Amino acid sequence: MLSALIWDVDGTLAETEEHGHRVAFNRAFEEAGLTWRWDGAVYADLLAVAGGKERIHAWWRRIDPVGAAAPSARETIERLHARKTAHYLDILAGGKIRLRSGVERLLLEAANHGLKQAIATTTTLQNVHRLLDVTLGADASTLFDVIAAADTVGLKKPAPDVYHRVLGGLGLHASQCLAIEDSFAGVGAARSAGVPVVLVRSRFTTPRPCADCVEDLQDLNGVRLADLRRMHHVWQVVEAARRNPPGAASEPKATPSACARPTAA
To answer: pLDDT tens-digit profile of 191-204?
Structure first.
């Protein structure tokens, strides 16, 4: 049975990428005197790279591989990302980024029904807590039993590290949980950890089918906890059938008859 929901953050809880992170990156670049500017198309492409620092480095390598390989590049990236985070937190404080439709209702419904909840994200803990504070109030973090972020694990999505950390904190088997993600990197991370996942498409979700998802949704508007329980149950039934297909049990091997003629040598 379903015992926990595991939530991604950026694009899943809220549409933070287009009017939050992308804007913050561009402000940091301008502030540093750089001519870099990420429009929507460039940013959509860069989202294939998990992590803000990694994204900056990927872009730098693309336009100036020599500069990106310089000894001072790492320090520059750290400084740019720190300023980007500061700008992002300011944007959140302005109150223009809200939770996606249906998210708050599901969070509260799950809490009221005693389900455990967790966050598994590639953003920072600081970003997570500020988003929760400005959208749900100062006590919002208490809705979650575990919050695992990029700065608490080794490898970022699509590696399963953050999901392994969440599962350890929850004390649950992967099959008892249901992940909610908006990206294929997130889907890959969840599935690599054995967690079934619902894809809820966002502004920047890659437009291709999700063959490894329990469900592929445009949003959570109108989705109730009972719907998530049903999705999880169907996945369990399908998974059980996959692991134990009809007729998979080996037929008992026939033993030679005592009267059988010996084969000629």
So the answer is: 999 999 999 999 99
